[in-house]
Prior knowledge:
- The protein folds into three domains: about 5-270, no CATH class; about 275-375, no CATH class; about 395-450, Orthogonal Bundle (Arc Repressor Mutant, subunit A).
- The protein is about 40% helix and about 20% strand.
- It has helices at about 55-65, 150-165, 195-215, 260-270, 275-285, 290-295, 300-310, 315-335, 345-355, 360-370, 380-385, 395-405, 410-415, 420-435, 440-450, and strands spanning about 5-10, 70, 75, 75-80, 90-95, 100-105, 105-115, 120, 125-130, 135-140, 175-185, 190-195, 225-230, 235-240, 250, 260.
- The longest helix has 20 residues, at about 195-215.
- By secondary structure, it is an alpha+beta fold.
Amino acid sequence: xxxxxxxxxxxxxxxxxxxxxxxxxxxxxxxxxxxxxxxxxxxxxxxxxxxxxxxxxxxxxxxxxxxxxxxxxxxxxxxxxxxxxxxxxxxxxxxxxxxxxxxxxxxxxxxxxxxxxxxxxxxxxxxxxxxxxxxxxxxxxxxxxxxxxxxxxxxxxxxxxxxxxxxxxxxxxxxxxxxxxxxxxxxxxxxxxxxxxxxxxxxxxxxxxxxxxxxxxxxxxxxxxxxxxxxxxxxxxxxxxxxxxxxxxxxxxxxxxxxxxxxxxxxxxxxxxxxxxxxxxxxxxxxxxxxxxxxxxxxxxxxxxxxxxxxxxxxxxxxxxxxxxxxxxxxxxxxxxxxxxxxxxxxxxxxxxxxxxxxxxxxxxxxxxxxxxxxxxxxxxxxxxxxxxxxxxxxxxxxxxxxxxxxxxxxxxxxxxxxxxxxxxxxxxxxxxxxxxxxxxxxxxxxxxxx
Length: 451
């Protein structure tokens, strides 16, 4: 069955103060209901401040990085009315689109606009924390161009990468996505407030199966809003889907309209980073990298920048292979982004130079690189402290090879019987005899010659 999926993604913008007041946005580390003021709580007589300039600039940068056209007329905020305990005013301020008709890797972006975040309602405890109320949000609305849960997951990964590159969004940790899905041109269901890429994928997988089963039984799919219960991996009905008229939109009389000046757009374009999908294409063309290598290196802006610095000195293909495989491996193990680690381009250049000059074996280099993300020591110092510096003379390797063969007749028999793991065992023995300083590839060659 044909599936159509569109997304509405809300992500907090990275600012020190809220959208319409000076309250701090660091709501997660503050005690409940401390980062608040009469404006956040919409107290009688409290009027919003003019729109946070940094939030507007951040939203414009993201819209431009998503290849959106920018609205050239007056921009203003509307009141979107609905009742919920975390919304003290009974309405949410949301702007008209500031960007429209964008595109990201084949998925059309219908519009980009700004909103104020509501508070946090905890129905199980019956309490509301308003620290989050008024934090600036960007909402990105796509066209229903995704045709599978996998496509939606890939799009969200690409989008989070763009948001990270922008430096103006808080990323996946603050993401809340509404997922719209329909099958065979039928009515669509909207699944609200999914807070992870994995959650969106799982919700779509379940909802696709649920709607297929309804259609097979001849039951009409309702146009409704549903919730995803991640603990049970199911969606459940919440209410019939609202239309725009249900929100009773009206112009907010307390906020002045804004004109987005051409000079501001020009300034943002000059300052904004290259988008990750463009960077991937450039890495392929400029450095001759395979697409897979380029995508991994462009997965984080700091990693991509480090690669370009390293590639000025070290062969780009060599650097890409080590950074794609080994640097990413140890970052993943330590649960760090490149920008959070102690890696520097200077230290990577030093390590790669040591490998190429055969001052250290590849196996030893992998051990050194495991220490680098959490150490401020130079690779040469790390290698010396671990006793990994130097590559033994070939005569010593030959002696170690002959010793390994002489002491392991069962492994020799297994090798001759076609058991390939026996060769790996013998390589390990040679490495033990040479304290890890034999070059693995040459060791394999020497063993095969004698076997």
